[in-house]
Design goal:
This protein is mainly beta. Helix content is 6%, strand content 43%.
Length: 1171
């Protein structure tokens, strides 16, 4: 067997070499022509001798001589059909070109010629469209069928595109869709245009009028699909083409559209959304793009879904097209026609355009033709035709039977010159049949050069990766087949690289002085050097290693670069010249500090295989010394425009030695740092390329783990720059631990993991990953141990037993699960337990399950925090990294009754028939609790467990009581809590309410309560006021304050009385004369009494007074009370308990609002108000 060999057609080298025809140019299979232009059908071919051409039309021979309108170009098969005065339709049909010479016949594809068409729109009368506001609407376009199909768009009569948005948009078929119409959609110029691309003509549909009414508008509604209809549809697309899926929905408000692929993601980098998310477009479709695609329309009223099932079919496509063969007589060969397609294509073979016939020298097996023992003169062109319902492929491949001795096409004694450490490529182009074997020799040696550092390529080229001076010499390539041998000689010279040994230095000179730059260079003596200088990248001619500038001025400032060129390489270095003026001119005031200027003049010296020296010139410091330099590099070979921090250099140095990695295209830049910050980066250095080498190290962080029960994922960290050369790959090896088997190895590239399938569940594997590239393998890798994937445990813990240790604690014991049933890394046990019900309350509900986790080595554990006297259930499960196993058999247990109960809250409230008052004790208090043992008689009350409030009647009013309360179960009594309460006075019975709250989980076990009451001796017999501010009114300091105020008012009244008797008048008399209130009696001046103040209010007793003037208490006779000054309106107590606004309180306000006398309040009334 042999492979294809391309036959060169260089007439000077291979003149007279025969070759069957090969089609080099042909028109497309589907050829749409412009009827206004001549028809040109291309067919070009090559061969030796040059082939002749013929055509068939619609399967029959096309006689060109009979049609003067048809001509064929000279030395070509291209047809030119003149259609002037003719109709192009007359030449429509299927054409095929044939190219033949004495060595075979090649045929072209079937070329279908069709004339482009742009028919006119049929005349039609379009009635106006009248719709209600909010409904959906479709305006149809339906253009005439053209060839090719027209491009549709909607515009107005002035050729302005109609506005489109998420609500109004054009569908793929050209129709205009409205998800809901609005009043602004009313217009009379909806025009659909169709543009036919071949003829560049535009056809127009009659304008459509749309009128939107709002007398019966549509309400808001959830989305529904206008196209496609229903909830499911099917779409078919061909491989390699563009898939367009469309969903348009109506709805109010306008729906939002979204897309997703079920059971997968949309193809990354190949999908896009168009037409306001209504169209999903996927380019370059592959078989993986088949599946269900869901479009979702959503608005505030709901959502709708539609699933489009995409089926990807494929016209035939090449997996491997047949290739030409050159065979020597009696050789064998294979022609293969590898194609793909869906459905699977049918393959047929022809030879020289005729269906192949049986022949002992060739055998057809589906997509393969096997040739054996070929003979001189059996050259031919074979045709492979692969077809299915979506198209066909046709390929020509010739078999040229030749017997040709070797020929070396490379010129003899060719000289190759390279610089050391660079690749050297020595050519040996050849031809012969059979294919010659190429061998290389150096100088007079007899050994074949086919090992490191030499690489022999299939085309005969000999490569030396990193040439060294010792590789210089004479090389001989020999081409050999059974007919003859042919040799050719070439020479290789490896030269020393050009290096600048002394770089020009940074120069600061004064004006009118002299500046000198020197550039010492070393180069290969056999190469002709040319020195040149640049100023700011502009060249001037100075062929010397020294540059002198006399009488410098500011115009001479800049960057000076010396460049040493040879015929093979060059090197360069730069320095900056700064010109300063006089001393006075140079002593400038200090400017404000800022970040430094970027370094300049980056130079690479001492260039070696794995290192280089970088030198630079600092920029202006701007009055802040440079602290350090940051060196960064860019690798343009692997990650262009990504700068990576490499090293830091003290601010006092401007040179650094850099260690490098192989196979990196380095560029360096430097940043300077002072107290203000980093400078801008310097300009990049000249690129420095290091030579490839085999990897120095293997990947790191190698580990093995499973993500499925039957696989093992081997992962590692990519090496990055440690690849050291092209063709980086990873040799992944694994074998099951403690099993006698060989290492299994796979080689992968461009990935950081490898998945091993069909592994036992959670088995240990030995793993190693070794790096390799085109230059060799890395060191021996370290073996690590990983585990295949886990599965859910298959068994539950055995012999689960539970025992209640007390009323709130239980102990659980179990037998561990066998490791084989864990099926993974045992992580522990989970105990699920829940309270089914209380044994005290029959109607209690089960509680939510709780979980306790125990370690993998535990076989017992405790359940704390249980409820006493309850029924519990539990089960236990083992778990690993995958999850939990099945539960064990459910166990139930009961907790005993609880211990001594306790109270959580307890308070006493005084009751005044329908009024409840909280008793709040804050010092100082009027009621003093007796701190001695002189308590009143103890009374005991037993309560049922479900009571939480007790009302005690027939108590003494305005008296303090002390209560004792405890809870008890069969285990005994709990702690006693105490509280104090005060009764209040009323005309009804005297009662006291006691509230108590029992701690939650003891409530079920309370059997009885002890309630003890003891009489507390009060320190004062003052009455308790029926005010909601009882905590104020019952305080001693407050009562004392009120008594003081009353005494003060009494003194004021006495003083007023004395003044009145002396003849003084009160302003109230004048008001009385003005108002003439009938209830006010005139004052009797002769007896000195105050008749005008004998208002009935003077004799109204204050509510709650124990000693009224008439000896009786009339309830509600007065609306003046402490409530009015305490809680009510404007009456306020300040922080020390004093009363604020006693003359401007609620009483005064109410009096004014009630249209009563506007006189000042009676002093007697005022006094009564505060007593």
């Amino acid at each position: 067997m042999t492979t294809a060999l391309e036959v060169p057609l260089d007439s000077k080298v291979l003149e007279g070499l025969p070759q069957p025809p090969t089609i080099t140019l042909q028109s497309p299979k589907d050829y749409i022509i412009d009827p206004r232009e001549n028809i040109v059908i291309n067919c070009e071919a090559k061969g030796k001798p040059h082939p002749s051409f013929s055509w068939t039309r619609n399967g029959s021979h096309f006689d060109l001589d009979k049609d003067p309108k048809v001509t064929m170009k000279p030395s070509s098969g291209t047809l030119v059909i003149d259609i002037s005065g003719e109709k192009a339709e007359a030449y429509e049909g299927v054409y095929q070109c044939t190219a033949r010479n004495e060595h075979g016949t090649a045929v072209s594809n079937d070329i279908v010629i069709r004339q482009s068409r742009s028919p006119l729109w049929s005349k039609e009368r379009i009635e106006p469209v009248v719709v209600q506001l909010g409904v959906s609407l479709i305006l149809q376009c339906r253009p005439p069928a053209g060839l090719p199909p027209p491009i549709i768009f909607w515009m107005d009569p002035f050729f302005q595109r109609l506005p489109q948005n998420a609500r109004v948009s054009q569908a793929l078929n050209g129709d205009l869709y409205f998800s809901n119409v609005q009043m602004e959609d009313t217009r009379s110029d909806y025009i659909c245009y169709a543009r036919f691309p071949h003829t560049q003509t535009i056809q127009q549909k009659q304008p459509i009028t749309v009128k939107v009414l709002d007398n019966s508008p549509a309400g808001q509604r959830r989305p529904s699909f206008m196209t496609p209809k229903g909830t499911n549809s099917v779409a078919t697309v061909l491989r390699g083409e563009t898939l367009e899926l469309e969903c348009i929905a109506d709805g109010l408000p306008t729906p939002d559209m979204s897309w997703n692929k079920e059971k997968g993601d949309l193809p990354s980098g190949r999908f896009s959304f168009h037409n306001f998310q209504k169209t999903l477009r996927v380019t370059e479709v592959t078989e993986a793009d088949s599946g269900d695609y869901r479009c979702t329309a959503k608005n505030s009223q709901g959502l709708a879904h539609h699933v489009i099932t995409v089926m990807v079919k494929a016209a035939p496509y090449w997996v491997g097209a047949p290739r030409n063969l050159i065979l020597a007589p009696r050789e064998s060969g294979i022609l293969t026609c590898h194609v793909g397609g869906n459905p699977k294509p049918t393959i047929t073979w022809s030879v020289n355009g005729v269906p192949i016939e049986s022949d002992p020298s060739r055998k057809v097996e589906d997509d393969t033709v096997i040739l054996s023992d070929v003979q001189t003169g059996s050259s031919a062109v074979y045709q492979c035709n692969a077809s299915n319902e979506f198209g066909y492929l046709l390929a020509n491949a010739f078999v040229n039977v030749l017997a040709e001795p070797p020929r070396v096409l490379t010129p003899p004694n060719k000289l190759y010159q390279v610089i050391a450490n660079n690749p050297a490529l020595l050519d040996c182009a050849f031809f012969g049949s059979p294919i010659p074997k190429i061998t290389w020799y150096k100088d007079q040696q007899t050994s074949i050069l086919n090992s490191d550092p030499y690489v022999l390529h299939i085309n005969g080229t000999l490569e030396i990766h990193a040439a060294q001076p010792l590789h210089s010499g004479k090389y001989t390539c020999v081409a050999t087949n059974y007919l003859a041998s042919k040799e050719n000689h070439v020479r290789l010279e490896v030269k020393e690289p050009t290096r600048i040994l002394k770089q020009p230095e940074y120069n600061v000179v004064q004006r009118n002085s002299k500046a000198v730059f020197e550039c010492k260079v070393k180069h290969d003596p056999t190469l002709t050097p040319i020195m040149s200088w640049l100023k700011d990248n502009e060249e001037f001619v100075i062929e010397s290693e020294s540059l002198t500038i006399s009488h410098v001025t500011e115009a001479d400032e800049g960057t000076y670069t010396c460049i040493m060129n040879t015929t093979l390489d060059q090197d360069s270095a730069s320095a900056v010249l700064t010109v300063v003026g006089t001393l006075e001119h140079s002593l400038n005031p200090l400017s404000s500090c800022k970040q430094p200027d970027p370094p300049t003049d980056l130079e690479l010296t001492d260039q070696r295989e794995r290192s280089v020296q970088l030198t630079w010139t600092p920029g202006d410091e701007h009055n802040s010394p440079i602290q350090k330099f940051l060196v960064q590099y860019e690798d343009s070979l692997h990650q262009e425009e990504a700068w990576v921090n490499m090293t830091e250099v003290p601010g006092t140095k401007t040179t650094v030695h850099l260690d490098l990695s192989p196979y990196v295209y380095y560029s360096f830049r430097v940043l300077a740092l002072n107290d203000v910050g980093f400078s801008d980066p310097s300009l990049p250095s000249k690129q420095y390329r290091t030579n490839p080498a085999k990897p120095d190290e293997n990947p790191s962080e190698v580990e093995g783990f499973g993500i499925k029960p039957n696989n093992l994922v081997i992962s590692w960290k990519l090496n990055g720059l440690q690849s050291n050369g092209p063709g980086l790959q990873y040799k992944v090896s694994w074998k099951q631990k403690d099993v006698d088997q060989e290492w299994i190895t796979e080689t992968v590239a461009n990935t950081s993991q490898f998945v091993v399938s069909d592994t036992p569940t959670f088995s240990a594997y030995e793993i190693k990953v070794q790096a390799e590239n085109d230059y060799g393998t890395g060191p021996t890798p370290e073996v690590v141990v990983g585990y295949s994937g886990e599965d859910l445990p298959s068994a539950a813990p055995d012999s689960v037993q539970v025992e209640a240790l007390n009323d709130t604690l239980a102990e659980v014991r179990w037998e561990p699960v066998h490791l084989s049933a864990v099926r993974g890394r045992l992580q522990g046990y989970k105990l699920y337990y829940w309270r089914e019900r209380s044994l005290h309350k029959e109607d209690s509900q089960p509680e939510e399950a709780q979980v306790l986790v125990f370690g993998e080595n535990k076989t017992d554990g405790r359940l704390p925090g249980l409820h006493p006297y309850s029924l519990y259930s539990l089960d236990m499960r083992v778990f690993n990294g995958k999850g939990e196993g099945p539960p064990s058999a459910r166990q139930q247990f009961e907790t005993p009754e609880g211990g001594k109960g306790g109270m959580t809250r307890f308070k006493g409230n005084g009751l005044n028939k329908n009024d409840m008052e909280n008793v709040m004790l804050r010092p100082p208090s009027v009621f003093l609790v007796n701190t001695t043992s002189e308590l009143g008689p103890m009374e005991e009350i037993i309560l049922s467990p479900n009571e939480t409030v007790l009302t005690v009647s027939n108590l003494k009013y305005s008296t303090r009581y002390k209560f004792y309360l405890s809870a008890s179960t069969v285990k005994g009594s709990g702690p006693t809590v105490t509280e104090e309460g005060v009764t209040i006075m009323d005309e009804g019975e005297f009662v006291l309410a006691v509230y108590y709250y029992v701690m939650g989980y003891y409530m079920d076990y309370v059997m009885f309560f002890f309630l003890s009451l003891s009489l507390s001796i009060s320190g004062c017999a003052c009455a308790a006021m029926p005010s909601r501010q009882l905590d104020i009114a019952t305080q001693g300091w407050f009562i004392g304050l009120m008594c003081a105020i009353a005494l003060l008012i009494l003194v004021l009244l006495i003083v007023c009385f004395i003044k009145r008797n002396k003849g003084g008048k009160y302003p109230v008399k004048e008001k009385e004369d003005a108002h003439q209130d009938p209830e006010i009696q005139p004052m009797k001046e002769d007896d000195g009494t105050f008749g005008e103040y004998s208002d009935t209010e003077d004799h109204k007793p204050l509510k709650g007074s124990r000693t009224p003037s008439n000896g009786t208490v009339k309830k509600d006779d007065s609306d003046d009370s402490l409530v009015d000054y305490g809680e009510g309106g404007d009456g306020q107590f300040n922080e020390d308990g004093s009363f604020i606004g006693q003359y401007s309180g609620k009483k005064e306000k109410d009096t004014a609002e009630g249209n009563e006398s506007s006189e000042a309040p009676s002093p007697v009334n005022a006094m009564n108000s505060f007593v």
